[in-house]
Amino acid sequence: MTEEKNKKNEDKGAPEAGNEPVLAAVNDSAPSLSNSEEEKESRRPVSGLVELPDSVKEKLEKRKEKGPSRSKKKKGKKKDRTVPTGKAFIKSTYNNTIVTLTDLGGNVISWASAGIAGFKGPKKATPYAAQIITRIACTKAKEDFGLKEVSVFVRGVGIGRDAAVRALNANGLLITSIKDITPIPHNGCRPKKPRRV
What we know:
Elements: H1 2-12, H2 20-28, H3 35-42, H4 54-66, E1 85-92, E2 97-102, E3 108-113, H5 127-145, E4 149-155, H6 161-170, E5 174-180
Parallel strand pairs: 1-4, 4-5
Antiparallel strand pairs: 1-2, 2-3
Helix pairs in contact: 5-6
């Protein structure tokens, strides 16, 4: 009876007591990654820029080729710091949308606006532009600082507000809170006279 069970187990490929050391040896011989290779794996470029439309990619590359317009200063060694938690500020007006990602102290990690992504005129205030610039800012922050979760602060009444918040979530950032910090006058300045159309 036991011989029949052993034959069935062999047919099914179930391990016997004699086969276990062989399996362990096979697992031990599997190539393991060293620390430097693991770091390279973890610092592999985020796929955010890969997913951008071709026209936006071309404009970002042209901007990089032009280089910084400011005078070049000698920079010290850049510290490799990681910022796992931070804040996301979304300023959405009728004419533009700006996304800024900071650490908890308020120091800017990355930012993007619709003009950087190549949008001009009335297209800068669209939800699509807000989605694209949020992807650009998130990619920079993830690659350079390892940002994982953010508290979102939304300012303004533009139509890119909701799209930017959704894009933060879609790009892999964990949103811990959302707060509207749009300034509201308590009967402050006298408003402009109404337009005659």
